[in-house]
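<goal> How does this chain fold?
<sample>
Here is the protein in question

***
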Amino acid sequence: MTEISTDFDPIDEYKDATGASINIELWKRLFSFTKPYKKVIKTLIFFAALTGVFEMIFPLMTKWIIDDVQQNGTDANLVMWFLLYVAMAVGLALCTGTFIWLVSKLRVYTSHDIRKAAFENLQRQSFAYFDYRPVGWIVARLTSDCERLTNILAWGLFDLIWGTTMMIAVSTALMIMHWKLALLVLTIVPVVFWISAKIRKTILHSAREVRATNSRITGSYNESIMGVTTSKAFTREHENLRDFQVLTKRMYSASVKNLTLAAIYVPIILVASSVGVAMALAYGGSELLAGIITAGSLIAAMTLVQHFFDPVEFMGHWFAEMQMAQASAERILGVIDAQSEIEDSTLVKLKKELVALQNSNPSTEIAEDGGTNDISSIELQNVDFGYQQDEPVLHDINLTVHRGETIAFVGPTGGGKTTLVSLISRFYEPTSGRVLLDGVDYRNRSLRWLQSKLGIVLQTAHVFSGTIMENIRYGRLDATNEEVKEAAKLTGAEDFILSMPDAYESEVGESGNRLSSGQKQLLSYARAVLADPLILILDEATSSVDTETEQKIQKSMESLVKGRFSFVIAHRLSTIQKADRIFFIKQGHVVEEGTHSELLALNGEYAALQFNQHFVVDQSVGSEGS
């Protein structure tokens, strides 16, 4: 398992924006996810406002009841007031229940849409995006960050509407009842905003640290689970636990700091509210003693003042939450807005639109970008590439391949073989030089079109959870069961499939954990064959299968490679002796090129590799014989 880095760098992939204020444009962008649900929002606004009005009426009813009793004594109509009070309580309960249901509905909808937008954009990213972002980094954004964000979007929206309605209604009622008292209460509001402005910077900074550390912990979980076999084999459990504890201690410190700040913020708002209530009580009491207002008016005014500060407290709480959720908002929008390093050019996009307009059912001979579906040559001209600008991996690669040829890449580990086929597949693009398809730079062709022509079998095959039939059909989703079985038979996968309890309907488990490495590789090979690709790439495609199965695959390859561009990466030279051309790649350079016999005749790097492999095999056979 890769050792976990526990050094906290404030400027890294785990950190986001550094501004301390509420980013209005960011929140406007997030609230745009609620636009498809305007009907729900309008209904929510209505019931939230109605709830605020209902809550404001109760203090007024208290005033009316007290005034009625004071004026009429035993003749006061208490039954009417009782029935009216019950009716208002039922109305408030119905409004409250309705808006809770609507808020929950809106929350689920927006959560779905935000996750969908993020996942769709992840699918568009080039390989480079995932090279420097751990799985935990991405998972944290699509789970905990999204959860926190949608909670704020839905409930924060409700509290804003409810609170605003309450404050306007209460202010209006107070102004009508006693305008001096209303103005006195309203003087507290600027103080509350000033306090919020002072505290928000610290809360947001600590929230970002919590979210950043959470991503590291999620990444640690993922690495620990995925690498459990390696950890146990090298008895790394204690070291892993130690590294994990460093992260959890940092998470604890950051969380305590964040929660403490939030806990301080809300009580300060409560104190400010209490000061406002005390001022209103003192002033209203003096007015009562002077006979200016009635007891009912004072009680109603005090209740209204309390109701005025209820939304202030709630909104203060959600303001603190909003500060903390902004860190999550920055992170999730960072995924949604990420631009792929490899995408169609503007010219290609225009061509695709033109083709779509000209013909809704384009001929199979015409690609979606207006070019031909059938290419006859792939050429690499003076290609250089490096994952980092100052660390070149490939140097001055020149290569021309014609359709129907099988090209093999051999050489020492780390020489650049897999990187070269990744460039041909346009998983990466050259840092200099060009890759041409029939003389056209592949940057001027559709990325989706090119990659739909690929069939790839990797050394470490990935198998999805589901059945064997589903995994093979992943190569071509519209394939029939008979075509799937034919692909399995052609690649030698059928033998082990039929020996399984449910044959093709057997479950493979998560990531294929019920299959051996060789079985997963055979499924991957069958999947590529079923896709019927124009460009077939085999990266150590038989490294995990036995000799007998390898021979079956090699025999089937003779018919498979016909009419295709075939690229084979191999360490075992026995698998590539029939290749049309073999390229020996070392330290990013092509040092030898030719057929198997031509390279042996050179008596160079390839011949030395061939001799060493034969020597190892002979030694192994000799040991077994003795």
Summary: The CA atoms of residues 210 and 254 lie 5 Å apart.
